[in-house]
Structures are given as structure tokens and as C-alpha cells.
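I would like you to sit down with the pair of lines that follows and say whether C-alpha cells and residues agree.
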Amino acid sequence: MPLEFRSANADDSEQVAALHADSWRRHYRGAYADSFLDGDIDTDRREVWAQRLANPAGTATILAEYDGQLVGFVHVMFDHDSRWGSLVDNLHVHHSQRRTGIGTQLMARIAQTVADQATGNAMYLWVLEQNTNAQHFYLATGASCVETSTVPPPGGDPTRLNGSPKCLRMAWPDVSRFNDASR
């Protein structure tokens, strides 16, 4: 069965939330507090995704599926920042499908979506400083690291963080120059 891509809808919130929570547990240790990651982040993510997908104005969420099963997703908020453009707020690929090109395909599709639907032609995202694999991936697609900042606490609750972890702003000033590393 080939990999299929489609826009998410409200009915997808449960499976998107489950993948998001699993990805955080696997990749955000050290930056996010263990008590938060080992707690009920499934409920937290379900609430977030139920709201996002029920009211998608100004956003787009693209799913990647094999045989009807979610293997990855990307979410963008159009024209989020006057300087940096549209915010890629989430990119997550199921751990069993990492390094298969799904992330690259999702990013290429969201770059095209930004080009088609946003007012501006730039996009950016934040990546944890500790996540060097993701940083290399974004750099390979043509992003530049333009800024370092402190990670904002999930849900605005500072107890959900381990200290003051850092994140990096990765930016694509022109999505028409997005480098699909799978080509």
C-alpha cells in the first residue's frame, strides 16, 4: 500500500494526539519534565488537537498514512510572525517510520501549502537545542538557524520543563526555495 497524504479533519484528533504524545515522550526527555511526560499528556494533547482540528482557521494539518494508519503529520499556522512568516508548529513521524523520507515529504507539502495559502512566503519552526538530528534534517532542507531562545513551557506551566531548556529558530525565508532532500 502506498504512502498517502491528506488534510486532517476533526475526526483525526485522537490519532494525531496519540502520535504527538508518543513523540514527546521519546524525544523531549531532558527538556520537558519527566513528571509531565510520564503523566497524562495523552489527555493534554487530545484537548489541544480536538480544538485545533475543530477550528482550523488560519492553519493546515497534513497527515501521512499507510493503509489508513497515521505515520506522521505536520501542522502550520499561517502568517504567524510578521518577520518569519508561517509557523510549522508540529512535525512528528512515528518512531518506526523515522528516516524513511516521510518527514521530508510532509515538510515539502507544507512548504507548498504555505506558498499557496499564506500571505507571506516565509516559514519557520522551533527545534529543541538537544535535538541535533532534527536540526541537521532542517538544515538539509534549506533552513538557516537564525536565533536561540528559551523553550516556552507547554500549556504555560513552567513545572512542565526541566530547568530552562533552549530552542533554535530554523527559518526558510522563501518556501519556493525549500530543498526537498529526498530528490
Summary: The radius of gyration is 16 Å. Helices lie at 13-27, 34-37, 41-54, 102-117, 132-140. Strands lie at 3-7, 59-66, 69-81, 85-93, 123-128, 144-150, 166-172. The first strand starts at residue 3 and ends at 7.
